[in-house]
Amino acid sequence: MTPGKIVSNTRVVRASYANKARVTTAQFRVEANQEIDLSSVKEGEVILRNLYLSLDPYVRFTLDETGGDMPQSFRQLNDPFYGLGVAEVVASGYEKYPVGTLVTANTGYEKFTRISGLNDPNTQSDIRVLPAHARDESTGVPLSNYISALGMPGLTAFAGLKVLGIEPKKTIFVGSAAGGVGQLVGQLAKVQGLRVIGSAGSDEKVSYLIEKQHFDGAFNYKTEDAREALTRLAPEGIDYYYDTVGGEILDLVLEIINEKGKILSIGMVSQENGKEPYPIRNLNVIARKAVSILGFIYWHHLQYFANGELDDAVRPLLERKEISYREEVFEGIENAPTHFVNMLDGKYAGKVIIKIADL
Amino acid sequence: MTPGKIVSNTRVVRASYANKARVTTAQFRVEANQEIDLSSVKEGEVILRNLYLSLDPYVRFTLDETGGDMPQSFRQLNDPFYGLGVAEVVASGYEKYPVGTLVTANTGYEKFTRISGLNDPNTQSDIRVLPAHARDESTGVPLSNYISALGMPGLTAFAGLKVLGIEPKKTIFVGSAAGGVGQLVGQLAKVQGLRVIGSAGSDEKVSYLIEKQHFDGAFNYKTEDAREALTRLAPEGIDYYYDTVGGEILDLVLEIINEKGKILSIGMVSQENGKEPYPIRNLNVIARKAVSILGFIYWHHLQYFANGELDDAVRPLLERKEISYREEVFEGIENAPTHFVNMLDGKYAGKVIIKIADL
């Protein structure tokens, strides 16, 4: 605790709902210069000083009055917008997280975040304490990686490949391969000796995947027919498909996947936003070719944070530059609405992160 | 070998194709009194005396000129109709299967079957040597069980449950629960401590499942709405679905299955016979609820025959009458066409078997 120390918060709150319309910066309001007395921290509370913030497309739904799977409490007007961040504990009323602890947590779009109720056994906290070496950026691994390659996208890629049970020399097709999860899926599979094929939405991303991230092949799904591309790039067929899209491309993969092939389904963005679901017609091949479709939910696999397995597996690859992770880091929490809207409009490649403060 | 011994064969051959039409006995021809000299057995051959024959709906497709996954050689006119049987080796030119060996094999619809090419390493034989105790029917386990509960249907049920990875106290829903596979799936799951729900196509079968095979619940899918029935019979929801049907019922199960639920897909009879496939609309729940659909092909799991695991697991249950297997056994190979047609017309409950000869 730091009694009597006053800090100044800035928050980005939901000002209005977009509902089905295109999101603009008008949905947000920046509230600056709100004083927080760090000595006000209570038993079971921490106050966090936020360092990096992850901007994620999936929180778009919290700008609708209804919809999505998360509780209504995540979409209140005048509350900070939802986001995961890297932060340092600067005031603590909870022994497990003393001052100076580095964590990731749902910090929201603000400079300082108060988290309460930690000593209530009925409250589940999403606070993750980072390993000591997270602080050491001289290794070439930036702290921001704890909300990207070593955070939720990293876990989703790493655990997803475990669920798939990938084997060397087989071929994996990664949908949204240039995205925050896809780029890691491809590179981690490549390191394990697979042939890796990806799709992305621009020629620039396709080139990046092949030249910088060593994919064996990639294609622009906006300009090339997927059936032709997959036939050309995977002459021995597809054994695994890491699917974030669903719909038509899933139906195509079902048709052409090899016997005993496996599909990991981590979401079906093509089927969201209240659209009429694409009717899948090739499910009969599941029995005919002993194919599996495996559903994946990120929070079923948090043990790889707790037991350090994700860090042990991925951090050395980043340090040795055997894999790379593409981030777009912008400065200043007050600029978060602009970058969130630009991201939704597809203006950025790589994971979008706001740097709020130095460590 | 039994030099000079002449036996008299009777065969039931394909006389004409039914193609898309209803199969009648006109598709078959019985050819009696064909002499076979057992001493004619050559190197790499055996001659089998067939004891029991399995009549299976899935071989219906061999009465079409085209279609299905099996090779064209299984649908030749004037060849014995396709079927698995229990048989005894009565002449042998192959050391691994001496005279007196009990086997199951693709014997076809006939009294005696010659199998050649056994010493050709490029030929795959489906001959399975039965364990010594198969011969001992005093245990209460008839030899015919080696083409039912201890044969292909047994393996399909047993290995399918292994692939599902069932856990006690969870609920499994078995489609076609009164069929040759379904009745075993339900009973084996029940023995392992699950709550077992099944569907069947008549009130008689529903009663049989509950009263004789100890299902926790069953419903007649022809007279009751599946959604209402499953809600009523599985108040804690469905964790596993053993699916042989696909289509509309699979789409319903996807909608109502519990989080982390698993579906085993061993075939989609509703999607066969060139019908327009039913468009599945609920696949998005796979990611939302971490559900898996696991495709299953019987011949990927033959190791449970070879290593005795199926026999070790299921035979004691049959001997102790902890599970029962419903067979309809008819006498005489010449009657096989009538019973095959009756079976296709849904006139029988339980696995249909022809007894050809005494051991």
Structure explained in plain terms:
Chains A, B: Residues 21-354 form the Enoyl reductase (ER) domain. The structure is a homodimer of 359-residue chains. Chain A is of the alpha/beta class and 359 residues long. Chain A has two domains: 6-139 and 325-355, Medium-chain alcohol dehydrogenases, catalytic domain (Quinone Oxidoreductase, Chain A, domain 1), CATH 3.90.180; 152-299, NAD(P)-binding Rossmann-like Domain (Rossmann fold, 3-Layer(aba) Sandwich). Helix content of chain A is 22%, strand content 25%. Chain A has helices spanning 152-164, 182-191, 203-211, 226-233, 247-256, 285-288, 303-306, 309-319, 336-344; strands at residues 6-14, 28-37, 46-55, 85-92, 102-105, 112-115, 128-129, 171-174, 195-200, 217-220, 238-243, 257-265, 292-295, 327-331, 351-355. In chain A, the strands form three sheets. In chain A, strands 3, 4, 5, 6, 7, 14 and 15 form a seven-stranded mixed sheet that branches. Chain A has a six-stranded parallel sheet with strand order 10-9-8-11-12-13, sandwiched between helices. In chain A, strands 1-2 form a two-stranded antiparallel sheet. In chain A, helix 1 packs across helix 2. The two termini of chain A are 18 Å apart. The interface between A and B is medium-sized, with 31 and 31 residues. Strand 13 of chain A pairs antiparallel with strand 13 of chain B, so a sheet runs across the interface.
Strand content of chain A: 25-35%
Task: Note poorly predicted spans of chain A.
Answer: none
Structural class of chain A: alpha/beta
What is the level-2 CATH architecture name of the largest domain in chain A? Answer: Alpha-Beta Complex
Q: Quick one: CATH class of the largest domain in chain A?
A: Alpha Beta
SSE order of chain A in H/E notation? Answer: EEEEEEEHEHEHEHEHEHEHHEHE
**Shape verdict of chain A:** globular
Gyration radius of chain A, in Å: 21 Å
N-C termini distance of chain A: 18 Å
CATH superfamily of the largest domain in chain A: Medium-chain alcohol dehydrogenases, catalytic domain
The proportion of residues forming helix of chain A, as a percent range, comes to 10-25%
The overall pLDDT average of chain A reads 93
Largest interchain contact: A-B, 31 and 31 residues
Q: How many domains is the backbone of chain A divided into?
A: 2
Say how many strands of chain A there are. 15
Count of DSSP-assigned helices of chain A: 9
Name the quaternary structure.
homodimer
